[in-house]
Amino acid sequence: MMRESIPDHPRTVNPQRAPERDRPAETPSRSHPPVAVRTHPLTVLHPSQPWAVVDDFPRKRTKYNRPETHTSSSSSSLRSLRVTMQWRINIPSLTKALLALLIACSVSYQVLWYALGYQHYLALIPQWALFAPWVYFTATYSEQNVITILIAGATLLYGGKYLERAWGSREFGKFILLITLVPNFAASLVYVLLFAISQNDDLALVVIQGSVALQAAFLVAFKQLVPEHTVTILKGAIQIRVKHFPAIFLVANTLSGIILGTDTALVLAWVGFMTSWTYLRFYKYQLDLASASTGQSQLRGDASETFAFACFWPDVVQPPVVAIADGIYNALIALRICTPFSAEDIETSNEQANARGQGGLPSLLNQGDRRGENSRRDEAERRRAIALKALDQRLHEATSNKQTPAPLSTSVPAPELMNSQPPTEADVRPKHNEP
After folding, report:
1. What would you report as the CA-atom Rg of the chain, rounded to the nearest whole angstrom?
2. How confident is residue 411, by pLDDT bands cut at 50, 70 and 90?
3. Which of 98, 190, 104 is nearest to 153 (CA)?
4. How far, in Å, CA of 364 to CA of 229, rounded?
5. C-alpha to C-alpha distance for 226 and 162, rounded to whole angstroms
6. CA atoms within 13 A on the CB side of 293
7. Cα–Cα distance, 176 to 327 (Å, whole number)
8. Backbone angles phi, psi at 208, to 5 degrees
9. pLDDT value at position 376?
10. How far apart are CA 140 and CA 124, in angstroms?
C-alpha cells in the first residue's frame, strides 16, 4: 500500500480522514457564519478526532475571531476612564457650573483684553458699569492670570463641594448669588464716592474683578460650621484652626492693599466678610438638629456665642471690638433694622454649634467612592445621630433635675412647744354634738 504524501498546500489532508457518512453532524452556529480555516503544513492533528484540524497558524483578525483577553493598555485606559467618571460624579451640580463659569469668564476676559483691548465687558469698571450691568456678576469669575485662576478654582472645588452638600444646592445658590453681587455693588459705590470727593479720574476707571470676596465668604462659612477643625501644613510644622483663617485673610489683604497697592482686594475682602457674616448671623435659615429626623423645624440666623463678631479676632483685641460691635448692634435694633435674639435663641444656637463641632469636618479628598444617593444618605444618618445625641442629653438633664430630692426641713421647734405638757385624756376624748 502506497503512503500518500502530504502536499504543500495551505490545507492539510489527513490520510486517515473518515468518510463523509461517518462524520458527526455539525450544527451550524447561530452566532456567526462558518469561517474557512487556514492551517500551516506542519499543523498537528487532533488524535481523538482525525477529521478536526487544530489551527496553530495565526489567522487573519476578523470580526468573528477577536481576542478575548485585554491588553495592559486597554485595562489602564479603562481604569483611567473609571477614575474620571468617579471624579465627575463626585462634584455637585452647582459647583460644576461655577467651575465652568470661572473658566469661561477668565478665558473670555483674556481674549477680549489682549486681542481687542476691552475690559468693561466682563470686569467691573465703575464708570462703565451702568452700560453693562451683567459685570456685577461676571467680575467675580474673571481672573487676570493663571495663578488667580488656580486659587479661585481650588476655592470653588473644595469649598463649594462641602458647602453645597452641607446646605443643599438651593441654599448654596442663594449664598453664592448674595456674595457675588453685594460686594461688587459696594466696591463700585466706594470708588464712586472716592471719585466724587477727590475728583481723581483714576478712581472711576479702576478695574474691580476677582474672587477675593468669594474666598472671604467661604472662610466665614467654615468658621460657622467647623470652627475647631485643625488644618495641618508642611507635615505638621504649621497647625491652624479654621476659626483663625478669616482674621488672617483680612489682615493679609489689608497689608497688601496698603503696601502693594491692591486696594480693590482690600475692599472686596472686607465687604465679602461682612456680607457673609451678616447673612449667616441674622438671615439664613438652618435646620434644627434636635428635629433633624423630621426636617420640619428651622432656625433663622445663628445666635451662638462662638459666631459673634468679636470671636473672629484674637483675645487681646476682643474687648474694644465687643464695645464697638455692641454699639452698632444696639443702634440697628433702635432703628428696627435688626431683631434682638432671645435667651432661647442663644441657647438653641449654642446647642447647634456644639452638635456641629461633634460632627466634625468630613474628608474632602476621600469621597471618590461615594455616589449621589449614598452621600445624601450618609449625611442624613450623620445629622440624625447628632440630633439623637443632643436629644438624649436634654432628656438626661431633665431626668436628673426631676430625681433631685427636696432638701429636708431643719426648722427648730418653738420654745413654747418644747415646754408644753402632753395632752390629757379629756383633751383627746371626742366631743359629741348636743341636740
Report:
1. 40
2. very low
3. 98
4. 13
5. 11
6. 9
7. 30
8. -110, 115
9. 54
10. 9
